[in-house]
Amino acid sequence: MKNRIEIVASGFGGQGVVRLGQIIGETGVKQGLHVAMLKSHGTEMRGGYVRSQVVLSQDIIDSPMCESPDYFIALSSAAYKRFKDTVADDGLILYDPAFVDEVDEALACTQKAVPAKELSMENFDNALFANTLVLGFIARLVNALDKEIMLESVLEIIPKFHNRNRKAFQIGYDYQS
Amino acid sequence: MKRFLETGNFAITEGAILAGCRFFAGYPITPATELAEAMSFRLPQEGGVYLQAEDETAAMHMCIGASLGGYKAMTATSGPGFILYADPYGWALGCETPLVVLNSGRVGPVSGITGAPGQGEFYLTRYPTQGGNFEAICLAPNSAQECMAMTVEAFYLSERFRMPVTVLADQLITDGFEDISVPENEEEMKKMGFRTWSRKIHQGPDFYPATDEIDIPPVVLGHNTGALCSDWTPTEEGYDIEEVEAHHKHAYRLIYKVRNHRDLFNHHYDKKFMDDDPDLIVVSYGTPSRVVNTAVSKARDEGLKVGALRLINLWPFPDEFFGAKTKYLAVELNWDGQLVREVQRAVPKDSEVHFLGSCGDLPTIPDLIETFEKVLKDEPLARKGWKLEAW
Lengths: 177, 391
Hints:
Chain A has 177 residues and is an alpha/beta fold. Helix content of chain A is 37%, strand content 21%.
């Protein structure tokens, strides 16, 4: 793996942006990596701005900031606009078209649309499993992260609905964008 | 040794429990709420007591009561709560009550920005109460792991110096998640460099001797002794009085028990690229120091002779690290400049001292390197949107 991988997730409060980062981080720790995950948020529990910045590294992490993320998970239009230009040229933006309607085609990095909310509604009649779907997709995309360990972390950190989370994770993992 | 992905708040809770803390009273506030939450869960498991107070002032007074009752006690807050500790902090200093206080900095003044980091209480941790006539001790960790270590250390120092000790963290480390290792027994604690000091109980005869001695056990109620808790001057015999001569002796103790035992904490710092007389020394503490470390390493790769000095022990201020006559840059999470003033005071005459402030977010590596270059080339530092700074 690259010695340092930076992953940013951002969206509104209540979407599970922090849990998402935490699950990626937990996977890293279980794989023996050093992990730092900063979270920034407003006062509101729901609706405000939230960002998780995850750094995975084989070495002790000095700067915990994601200044040029390798992966950016955009879960709102505002978040997309705010961080799209920070993504490294060889990096990747993963966005949910249910929340990000306008995509900047001029960016050098790769951009992939994952309709996680829509897939969650289709399969479970509920938007709740969108994040697990995204995590499944990330597990295939980020070579440094082990699929089974990631799933184990999902089930550990989200204590409820294990069967549906398992299924959602696999749908995300299999999704071809 | 157990390894977790957890928050600094969790790390502090585990550190406190390892150090023997069995009483916590607090009033929840972002970004220290999860600490109260973790304490409310963990302390009862360890036979300890968690109390949610009606406000911060009451919380710290409760901690004083618990400490006088023989408990190792702790409270935690952020800037807006830390100012409410001003009254009980003074009582704890004056009555020589060991306590640990955590302040996780956010953006101020007042409520400011809750979920973003700030370093606005640098001087407030030096003067956490009114009246003067005391020295304060403050430790500033820069990671979740170090949050645990410095909490253990704060309890150690608070027992030996018989006084409250502040741990100054910030939102990024208390709220953020990192991989942490929690020792499971004393041997592992020793291996990690954790120092502990068990609570001993004062037996008299002099309760408040007018000396600079440390390691005098605190008074504890119900052990054949009384315990004085007064806002007046404690006499050596443990009575209170309002009289200048006695207060002069008391103040001597509060000042010199710390000043004369600095060897106990003057190893708390971190130096990087400091062995070849750097042309610029970048001074910081807390989370910004981690970005500074990365930036200084990169600047070295670019041939800039820059060094990084990270302070962990903020108070008493380690003047001994500022002996070199060179250029200094203080990097802080505030826009007014606080650490920089203390650096200005500590450096040799005619040294240049500069300031780079950011607040709510860490400085970026390109910004830092650009600032190093400007300072080294004697170019003025300008902040985007602000006029030139005259530091």
